[in-house]
Structures are given as C-alpha cells and as structure tokens.
Amino acid sequence: MQRRDFLADVAAYSVLCAGMPNSWRVTTAPRLADDPFTLGVASGDPTSNGAVLWTRLAPKIYEPDGGMEGQKVTMTWEVAEDEKFAIIAQSGRVTVVPELGYSAHVDVSGLAPDRWYFYRFTLANGPSPVGRLRTTPAAGSPSPLNFAFVSCQHFETGYYTAFDHLSREGALDLVAHLGDYIYEYGPTDGRPRRYATTECRTLDQYRARYGQTKSDRLLQAAHHAAPWVVTWDDHEVDNNYATLVGENEMESEEQMHLRRAAAYQAWWEHQPVRVPRAKSWADLNITRSMQWGALAKFHVLDTRQYRSDQACGDATKEVPCGDRENTARTMMGPAQEQWLNEGLATSTARWQVMANQTRVAPFDTTPGPGQAFHMDSWGGYPAALARLMKNVGERSANRTVILTGDLHASWVSELRTDFNRADAKPIGVELVGPSISSDGDGLDQYPQWERQRADNPHCVWHNARRGYVMNAVTPADWRASYRVVPFVSKPDAPIQTAAEFMMRNGQPGIEKV
Q1: Cα(442)–Cα(434) distance, rounded to whole angstroms?
Q2: Distance in Å from the first CA to the final CA of the chain
Q3: What DSSP designation does 313 have?
Q4: Which secondary structure element, helix H or strand E, spans residue 9, and what is its range?
Q5: DSSP type of residue 23
Q6: What would the pLDDT profile of 434-466 be if each residue is shown by its tens digit?
Q7: Strand partners, 410
Q8: Euclidean distance between CA atoms 276 and 50, whole angstroms
Q9: pLDDT digit string (tens) for 199-220?
Q10: Which H, E and C letters describe 154-195, residue by residue?
C-alpha cells in the first residue's frame, strides 16, 4: 500500500468513527464465563403508566467491573402482560457501561394504570430472572393499597428469612425500604455470615458490598415480587454520618466528600430509583414523592445528607446539653423542609405517608426525673421536630403516618404537637419497623421498656424481634400488622404476627386490634 493510500484510508476510518462514536465497542453478546444476572432484577418508583426497571451485570461480583472486562453491552428489555411473555406491552434496548457499574435503569412508560405486569432483560447469552411490577392507580382513584416496609439488613448478623416470607405475602402491591440496605463495616468473626471485603470507602468496595448483599436469593425474591420505593440511611455511607461529618472525627470533609460520592453512586447503581441526574455524586438528590391514586402520597425523605451534626457528641445524652436546643439546627435542611411543607399543604390524598429514617417521636431513656435522648434521632433535634409536628398538625392532622427504620426494633407511637404534655391530642402516628436481620435474633421486648413506659406516654407498643410491617390501606382506615420471626441466626424461621393496629382517617390516635 502506498503511503498516500494508507493516509486516505486512515482519514476515512476517522470520519466513520466520528459519525458513530464508540459504537464499534458495544456488543450484544459479551464473552462471559458465568451468569451476568447474579444480582437479579428489580422495579421501583412506580407511576400510573410505568416504573423504573433495574438490573446490573456482574458475573463475578468481587472482580473489577464485576467481571465484565470493560465491554459496553446492549441488551433488550421487555414488559409483558403475562408471565410467558406472549403479549408484550413495551420493549426496548439499553446499553450498560463500566463507568456506571454496568447498571441498567429503564424508565418505562405507556403502561395501563392499576395493573400487574412482568418484566425481564435479555442478552444473547440468555434472559434474566422475571420480575413483577405494578402500576399505581390513576389520579383520583381510591383503590386500596397493600404494602410492606422494611429496613436494616446487616448481611453478617443474620439470614434474610423475613424477605422469604415477604415475597410470599398474598397481597403485596409495594415495598418501601427505609435505609441501611448495606452496612459499610468490615468483617467480624463469629457471625452467621461474613463480609468478603474490608470496610467500604471506595466505589469498588461499595459495589462489592452491594453485590454480596444483592446476591442473596431471598432478597432477590422480594425484589422480584413487587416494585420498591427506596431511601437511604447512614450505613449506606458511614455509621451516624451527618452532612460531611463522619464517625471517625479525624476524617476530613474532603475525605468524606469523596466517600459520600462513592457511596451515593454505588447506591444509585444498585437501586430501581428515578432521581435527577447527578451533577456531583456526592450531592445526589433522592428526595421525591410517589402518588397512589387518591389514596396516599408518599414523601421520600433524606435525613442524612442535609442534617446538622449531632449535638452533644452523639450517642444518648442527658439534656439539656451542648447546642441541642439551637433553633437553627435541622434534620432535613431548609429546602427539603419547604418541599415537605408544600407537599403536605397541597396534597388532597386521603393519607400522607413519610418514608423516614430515624425515630421521630422523642423517647426518654431515663426513668423518673430528668431526660435523656438519642442524639441521632429527631429527639436530638427538638426545634426541627417542633417544626415538623406544627406542619403536620396544621396541614394533615390525623391523616399522616410516618414510617421509620433504624432502631432494629418495633415501636408504635402517637405524634403530638407537644410531647411534654400528656394531655396533648394525637395528630398522627409513627410506625417504627423491625430490622430484617440487624442485631441478630432479638427478643420479645427490651427489659427496660416497662420502666421507661411511664415517661413516654405517646409510645403505645414495642417489640424487638426481626421482620417487617404489612399495611392494608383504604380511604377509611389503615391496618398495620407487625410480622416477625423468632430467629435469624440460622435459616428457615417461621413467621407470625406479633400485633396489629388500626388507624381511622381523620380520627386521633391508634388502637390495637
């Protein structure tokens, strides 16, 4: 070949590549030694005409790029009206890339409201597992809702037996996860299961931790059963972190900024969520709402990224102490507070639901004179708590239910505008759910509860087993069933209902059924 001809050919190929950037590196048949769908599939953030479909290709979850060897991969996705995929409602193609962990987020639309569908992803190598998604009712529809809420699934401290039972619940339209989907800690000897990596600080480490967690077949089955609405708490990043303040006090803001960016990106890569495109992963905004027809509006909160640092050095402290009473201190940040205020003021839904991380109703841990509160919960932020209760009381009294995780135990509390007055009328209810596995087997109730009861008259019930909460919601009432297992230290625990509670729309208080 003459030099002039060679240069002409190079120029021609350059023009071709400029017209189709990177397309020559995308494949529909990647070379894979193992099943790429090891993490299952999921759907989430449903609407009346669609939902987000998720999967992540990771044939080898602990290897770089999940064992995908840097290939860009295009796969098909399908939503069908039947489990055999004979009637396809929507379909398309999605390309996954190493920069985003080979995660797929498909925002499907064009489906019919208030009905079930089946979905899957397919490569030339074969199909993914099949998941089920349910669209929400159309605007104005009072269709009932059956949903569960869960939280706190420390992989090492127990088996996910509760998820096995959850996936088999006969009436399950939705699952709300309130945080601590992963734990960032390193491995600890003597536990039922063991982490494969050290404490998470980098993107690869967080990816591996999600990979190990999501490889659990019982968790996958719960994702496959129904759409999820997910928020985060602290362990998705670092225990009890607040804004850019980590658990290790010597960790700088620059270090925490990088760690938060890695953690938030990994969270997004592994969840079926519809959130704004991240300009900076460290500032990913996950605050959003979801409407269930005319019945309920879900307000998904973030009480980690924008909160003031915990007062009094964190932990449980006697009050008054430090700057706890400072009225400028916040749990949600000014913008999120305003967003929630406006949401409650304008919503005409029968029920207002908050997907929240830490306990709202303050809990005095010191029997008798004096008070002590957990500084990481809303009780450590009294001014922010007072603003929240004022907002609920003025805008959505006795039609507000706050769903909470974090505590690894179940609590049912009445919400009041003034928790220091025993005669203050309830304005709403907080349902604190049990952990899925965190803290191991648990017990029927904490021994100190009987001594603490008199100082917390707004708290009406407690249990410390593992499990989840099933909720049957209609325009007239809300029934919450606390479903618990006796152990998680070994597999195959049975399920039982520890207690059931009933709220009536527009009426104060909650009653045990």
Answers
A1: 10
A2: 88
A3: G
A4: helix 3-19
A5: G
A6: 999 999 999 999 999 999 999 999 999 999 999
A7: 463
A8: 17
A9: 999 999 999 999 999 999 999 9
A10: CCCCCCCHHHHHHHCCCCCCEEEECCCCCCCCCCCCCCCCCC
What is residue 421's predicted lDDT score, i.e. its pLDDT? Answer: 86
* pLDDT confidence of residue 1: 41
CA torsion, ordered 333, 339, 343, 346, to nearest 10 deg: 130
- Fold exhibited by the domain 26-135: Immunoglobulin-like (2.60.40)
The pLDDT assigned to 11 comes to 40
* Residue 360 DSSP SS3: coil
Residue range 379-398, pLDDT digits in tens: 999 999 999 999 999 999 99
Whether 71 shows a pLDDT value over 90: the answer reads: no
Tell me how far apart the alpha carbons of residues 484 and 478 are, in angstroms, rounded to a whole number: 19
Residue where the block lists tokens 């900076």: 280
Q: Residues 77-81: what's their mean pLDDT?
A: 98
Which of 278, 198, 230 is closest to 403 using CA atoms? Answer: 230
The answer to whether domain 26-135 and domain 136-512 are alike in fold is: no
Q: Which amino acid is at 490?
A: K
Other CB atoms within 10 Å distance of the CB of residue 81:
16
For every residue of 82-109, DSSP letters joined together read STT--SEEEEEEEEE-GGGTTEEEEEE-
Residue carrying structure tokens 């104005």: 140
CATH superfamily of 136-512: Alkaline phosphatase D (PhoD) (3.60.21.70)
The four Cα atoms 444, 450, 451, 456 give a dihedral, to 10 degrees, of: 100
DSSP per position, 443-481: BSS-TTHHHHGGG-TTEEEEEB-EEEEEEEE-SSEEEEE
Q: Among candidates 513, 478, 511, which has minimal Cα distance to 499?
A: 513
Q: For tokens 């609920």, name the residue.
A: 392
Q: Report domain extents, the chain.
A: 26-135, 136-512
